[in-house]
């Protein structure tokens, strides 16, 4: 029988609520995004205050635009982690309150698993190598033996942090990825930068320092943006290629906010073509953090019998996706 799950996302800058049906229809996806001040990053407490203020209207709007009544909901899912403590707690409190008052199960969802499962729903990917590139993650992932396994990752900054910290050094406000992409598109002058792939992992901290220093020494923002994109995207393409060759899978799916970048998709497509694999990119509206990733994964988890008693529901600031069992793919 068809069921409806409401999902609450609040791991970082976004507070978002969505209602999704068990046949994969996204009925609503309302959100409020905290904006960091120019030159600054996400301040966890400030972001949580944004979420607190926005929660009632985002929740009401998600229900209204879905055309459902609270009584139609079978379960409430929430992003239990990983993420920023103060932000996670706002979402958890909202979800607990809703689940307790409706008398329905509360379903914990790992945010990174949420990106992947929503990506599979929207792109039709069945068994992909996943490149998860966002503010919070840089990982190459594939499913094997009940879990999503991490085949490579960043040893320090995420790709989103690399771009955002570079942009902030130039006086921009986070998130800066789209503005850097736009500025990079106006250059084709490559300035040499450190390329750091270690085994199947990447490291971005030296690249960030070198890029900032080029700016400080007078190089144009366009040229450094271009060079930064070319270098960092080549690094993640190299490790994704190795994962693809190793697993022999035939799909590459890019998820997370950085998936919006056209140059990254272009590099991935050229690489995938050599392996007769296809590249699947999540539509822009759903590539960043959103309630739909939590609601849809909530459907899958709820149907597999996963729930947490309200009295025991916590948040987990650190929660690697490779410790989460995924029974619905077993
Ligand atoms: P998420 O954490 O999934 O919401 O993703 C946010 C990250 O995506 C931020 O670091 C943004 O700078 C980055 N981002 C958003 N749009 C783009 C883009 N067009 N190119 C590169 N990075 C982007
Ligand atoms: Mg995310």
Q: What is the CATH C level class of the largest domain, in words? A: Alpha Beta
Helix content: 40-55%
Number of domains: 2
Count every beta strand, where a strand is a DSSP E run of 2 or more residues. 12
User: What percentage of the residues does DSSP assign to strands (E)?
Assistant: 15-25%
SS element count, helices = 10
CATH homologous superfamily (4th level) name of the largest domain: ATPase, nucleotide binding domain
Q: Radius of gyration from the CA trace? A: 20 Å
Give the overall shape, derived from the CA principal axes.
globular
What average pLDDT do the residues reach?
96
Poorly predicted segments: none
Structural class: alpha/beta
**Widest beta sheet: strand line-up:** 3-2-1-4-5
Ligand catalogue: adenosine monophosphate, magnesium ion
CATH topology of the largest domain: Nucleotidyltransferase, domain 5
Any guess at the CATH architecture of the largest domain? 2-Layer Sandwich
């Amino acid at each position: 029988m068809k069921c409806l799950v409401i999902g609450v996302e609040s791991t970082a800058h976004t507070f978002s609520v969505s209602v999704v049906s068990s046949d994969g229809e996204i009925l609503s996806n309302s959100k409020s995004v905290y904006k960091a001040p120019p030159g600054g990053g996400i301040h966890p407490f400030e972001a949580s205050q944004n979420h607190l203020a926005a929660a009632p209207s985002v929740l009401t709007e998600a229900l209204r635009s879905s055309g459902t009544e609270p009584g139609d909901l079978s379960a409430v899912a929430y992003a239990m982690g990983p993420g920023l403590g103060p932000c996670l707690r706002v979402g958890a409190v909202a979800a607990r309150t809703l689940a307790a008052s409706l008398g329905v199960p509360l379903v914990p969802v790992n945010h990174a698993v949420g990106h992947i499962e929503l990506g599979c729903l929207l792109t039709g990917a069945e068994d992909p190598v996943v490149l998860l590139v966002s503010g919070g993650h840089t990982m190459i992932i594939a499913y094997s033996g009940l879990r999503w396994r991490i085949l490579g990752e960043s040893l320090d900054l995420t790709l989103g942090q690399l771009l955002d910290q570079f942009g902030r050094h130039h006086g921009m406000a986070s998130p800066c990825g789209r503005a850097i992409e736009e500025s990079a598109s106006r250059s084709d002058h490559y300035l040499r930068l450190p390329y750091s792939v270690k085994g199947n992992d990447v490291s971005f901290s030296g690249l960030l320092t070198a890029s900032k220093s080029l700016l400080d020494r007078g190089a144009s923002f366009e040229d450094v943006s271009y060079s930064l994109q070319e270098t960092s995207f080549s690094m993640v393409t190299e490790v994704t290629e190795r994962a693809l060759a190793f697993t022999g899978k035939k799909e590459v799916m890019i998820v997370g906010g950085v998936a919006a970048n056209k140059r990254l998709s272009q590099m991935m497509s050229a690489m995938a073509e050599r392996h007769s694999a296809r590249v699947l990119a999540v539509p822009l509206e759903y590539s960043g953090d959103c309630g739909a990733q939590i609601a849809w994964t909530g459907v899958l988890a709820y149907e597999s019998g996963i729930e947490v008693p309200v009295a025991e529901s916590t948040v987990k600031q650190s929660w690697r996706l490779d410790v989460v069992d995924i029974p619905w793919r077993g």
